[in-house]
């Protein structure tokens, strides 16, 4: 079986489209958590009012930094997966494994960004761990579902694919 040639422009456009979807998901989740995490009894977290008042600003900064860092990380993730010799594996299985590997990279990045944003905006990382771990817990589900759908849509697409 001959391997198809995939142009780098496909990986660039895939990175951009995924990042738009992923960033919107991150913004919504981080805004909701920063705004309402103190209202949920199981968290037992009491964020200061200045943190809650800046929830939109914090969510926007997390999303903006993520847009930059994860676009770069995603591009390299795509290039690495393109070079792997998994031709004989069923595509759905490959997409599931690829989804899990990307989610691990993405989760580490998100957790670090939450701490960075808390330190930049509030000069403290108090409450950052609860928000970061909560985001991780929610995003592991939402982003895996969204990413898998994104992979399947791109698999159907022939953009940037040269077949002999």
Distance between the termini: 11 Å
Order of helices and strands: EHHHHHE
Low-confidence stretches: none
**DSSP strand tally:** 2
Summarize model confidence as the mean pLDDT.
Answer: 85
- Number of helix segments? 5
Largest pleated sheet: 2 strands, antiparallel
Strand order of the largest sheet: 1-2
Overall, the morphology is elongated
- β-sheet strand percentage: under 5%
Task: Provide a brief overview of the structure.
With 164 residues, the protein is mainly α. Helix content is 76%, strand content 2%. The protein has a two-stranded antiparallel sheet with strand order 1-2.
Compile the SSE list and pairings.
Layout (H helix, E strand, L loop, with lengths): L4 E2 L1 H29 L12 H5 L1 H29 L7 H32 L5 H29 L4 E2 L2
Antiparallel strand pairs: 1-2
Helix pairs in contact: 1-3, 1-5, 3-4, 4-5
């Amino acid at each position: 079986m001959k391997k198809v040639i995939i142009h780098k422009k496909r990986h660039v456009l895939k990175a951009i489209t995924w990042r738009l979807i992923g960033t919107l998901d991150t913004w919504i989740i981080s805004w909701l958590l920063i705004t309402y995490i103190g209202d949920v009894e199981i968290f037992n977290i009491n964020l200061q009012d200045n943190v809650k008042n800046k929830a939109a600003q914090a969510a926007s900064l997390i999303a903006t930094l993520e847009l930059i860092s994860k676009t770069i990380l995603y591009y390299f993730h795509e290039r690495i997966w393109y070079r792997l010799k998994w031709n004989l594996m069923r595509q759905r299985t490959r997409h599931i494994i690829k989804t899990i590997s990307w989610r691990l990279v993405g989760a580490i990045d998100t957790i670090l960004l939450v701490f960075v944003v808390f330190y930049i905006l509030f000069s403290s990382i108090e409450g950052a761990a609860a928000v970061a771990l909560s985001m991780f817990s929610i995003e592991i589900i939402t982003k895996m579902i969204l990413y898998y759908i994104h992979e399947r849509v791109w698999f159907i697409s022939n953009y940037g694919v040269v077949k002999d």
